[in-house]
Every structure is written in structure tokens, then in C-alpha cells.
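Can't paste images in this forum, so I'm doing it all in text. The chain is below; anyone willing to post the predicted C-alpha cells underneath?
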Amino acid sequence: PPQKMYFNKIEEKVFPNELELVFVGADFFRKGGLEILNAMDYLLENKVKVSLNIVSKLNYGDCASKSTKEDLLEAQRIINKHNKIHHFDSLPNNEVINLFTKSSIALLPTYDETYGYTVLEAQACGCPVITTNGGVLKEINNDECGWIIEVPLNQDNRTIPKSIESKSNFQKEVTSSLINIIESVTSNLELVKIKGKLSLSRIREKHSQEKAAIRITEIYNSILNE
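Text version of the structure:
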């Protein structure tokens, strides 16, 4: 789907002096929310300069992560433990976009995703994204404009763990990868600007509103001229 561009060039975006992360999604656990919080808990305990804004109803019990009430309580414990983690139950879309425009990196290390529209919204704000590799995600994200966490794929090209062991392996891989990526970026914040620029370029090339309008007009004209 085409996206509105919120910056014409990356130089228009004011990046924070420290790494600011953002997560948006109602199904918190399906989208890798607990793995994000476990990574943040480790990073903040080790005095890494990073913060996180969460916009989510913290829904749990989905068929992909099979999250439980205990998972919810653990997530709330970590959120309440750190003043660098801020949770919003919900925000209007314009305020979500404002968060993307002010953030360093967006997060979607998901168990399963049909598309991942927030990836495109974040990229249109010059905000590179960390995702997993399942479903369509490698079509809209890559290691040039963002970061891909490679986890095992099922026969249908999805990343839903099928056993207790595979879920444990998924959690470990995603959590450790998030820690490694975030630690590496905190020592080279310029990388965020480089990937943010490539995110804008990707939206301009692949999801331009203007190009979509031209293409739709061409399709209508071709039908009318038949």
C-alpha cells in the first residue's frame, strides 16, 4: 500500500541523542513484545543508553506466541521496573506517527505477521525497523534499510514455533539478536541515519502515493480504451 512521506530527506529528521526505540501493536506478545522487554531489561541493567516507547493494549493468548496471563504479569513487571520504558495503552494515529518521526528505531520481531503495515509507516518516517524474517517481512524490510533477525521458517514460510522447544529457541534467538543489534547501534548512532535514509528511499521507490495514483489511472484508462 502507498505511504505518505513524512520527510523529503533524512536531514529534515531530528534524531535523539540517545537511542530511542518504539513498538506499536495491539497483539503485544505475538509481535515479539516479551522478547523486546527481556532484551531491554538486560540492556538497562547493564547501563546501556536506550529507551523504549510501547503503544499496545498488551493483548495475549494468540495462537502464534501462545502467551499467558503469567507472560502479561512478567511484561508488566519489567515495564514498571524501568523508568526508560514508557507504555501507552493506545494513541491516535497522528501521535503514533509523531512517535515514529522522533524515534531512532522501530521494533517488530514478530512470531507471525500477515503484512506488517507499521513497518511501512515507520520507514516513511525515516525510522528503520528491526523485524524477523517470516511471511512478507523480507519483502518490505532488509539489512540495508533495517535489520532482519533470521529465525527458522516453517514449510509455509512463516515463523510460528510448532513446539515448546522451537518456541524457546525462537525466544532466545530474538532476544539475543535484539541485544546485539541495539548494543552495536549505541556505539554507532550514525548507522540509524544511514538506514533511515535508505528507509525513506525504499518508500519513495516502492510505496509512493504519486506512483500508485499514476498506475491506477493507467489501469482505468486502459479499460476505458478497450
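DSSP finds eight helices and six strands in the chain. The longest strand covers residues 19-24.
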